[in-house]
Amino acid sequence: MQPDLDPDTKATAGRFGFGTQIRKSPFFDATVRWGATGFSVYNHMYIPRDFGDPVANFWNLVNAATLSDVAVERQVEITGPDALRFTQLLTPRDLSQCAVGQCKYVLITNAAGGILNDPVLLRLGEKHFWLSLADSDILLWAQGVAVNSGMDVEIREPDVSPLQLQGPKSGKIIHTLFGESIERLRYYWLDEFELDGIPLIISRTGWSSELGYEIYLRDGTRGDEIWERIMAAGKPFGLAPGHTSSIRRIEAGMLSYHSDMDIDTNPFELGLERLVNLDMEAGFIGKAALNRVAREGVSRLQVGLEIDGDPLPGPNNEFWPILLKNSRL
Q1: What is the fold, at CATH topology level, of the domain defined by 75-81+91-150+259-273?
Q2: Residues of the chain where predicted confidence (pLDDT) is lower than 70
Q3: Which end of the chain has fewer surrounding CB within 10 Å, N or C?
């Protein structure tokens, strides 16, 4: 049953105001109804960041399942006769063995080898790709690269909005919705589905290191319907509305663009050289620079630290300098 907007919720929704230039997802109203109390901005869109207690959100995720609005993972769609060749130009990861229906975690690099984004790539057809983005304007980058590439491609943002269904009970929930056919979906693969006439792409991916799925809505007018349908199916399994868990992703060593990397970071500094193939025949933007880094080595390397102390009272919104014997690292 769909919850009504009570006066307090209406008042809360009225406080979210970044202006009309910040886009709401098709699930925005549903997340407010289901208890979202705080939002931030990601890829020029509202993203729910607070459903009350982040620790409770973590336990919901690792013990049962959460449904998160991640429509901010805006899609760059690449189609046309040269779609594969052009997509390879954007990334140092070798795509020659990427099959139709497969997903790949990739890096997008600039001429200096710096990382512009770390999306999940979905191959929907022989000449049809999506880049499911982290937080940076890769649509504009790709369109700019295409101008003088000499390749026959079309680059646009399709009407696609993903949700993340994550957690150990997500498999039972997705089976309730789609039946046995969904169980054939392998890790980092995708397929087309329909639910009550709602067109979807579903992939076995997510940003939690738990069993999970990303559900790509292909009709933005039906966001409320799909949200409520999933929540109803998940009720017997303890499904809760939630947000991507920083606690869980840090535990799992999953990187976050802008937090752990940026345009001045190269893959070797992050230990991500497995995503760089310098031996493949195909060229890509940044290949010469990354060849040089591979030869000369790096002067810095990302590491993990365990910090003792009491829990922070809330999310940390600052970058902290780390000192070793009074010298800044």
Answers
A1: Alpha-Beta Plaits (3.30.70)
A2: 1-17, 327-329
A3: N
Contact (CB, 8 A) for 106 and 272: no
Q: Where in the chain do CATH 3.30.1360.120 domains reside?
A: 7-32+53-74+158-242
Q: Number of helices (H) and strands (E) in the chain: give both, helices first.
A: 9, 17
pLDDT for residue 19: 80
Determine the Cα–Cα distance for residues 298 and 17; give it in Å rounded to an integer.
Answer: 43
pLDDT value of residue 111: 98
Residue 197 tokens read as: 């006439």
Average pLDDT, the chain: 93
Cβ proximity of 234 and 166 under 8 Å: no
Residues 6+ apart with CB under 8 A from 305: 322
Instruction: Considering the chain, tell me which residue range(s) the CATH 3.30.70.1400 domain(s) occupy.
Output: 75-81+91-150+259-273
Topology (CATH level 3) of domain 7-32+53-74+158-242: Gyrase A; domain 2 (3.30.1360)
Residue ranges of alpha helices (H) inside 64-110 are: 83-90
Q: Which residue has the tokens 């937080």?
A: 135
pLDDT at 307: 81
Specify the pLDDT at position 16.
60
> What residues contact residue 237 under an 8 Å CB cut-off, 6+ apart?
64, 65, 169, 172, 173
Separation of alpha carbons 226 and 214, rounded Å? 13
The three-class DSSP label of residue 87 is helix
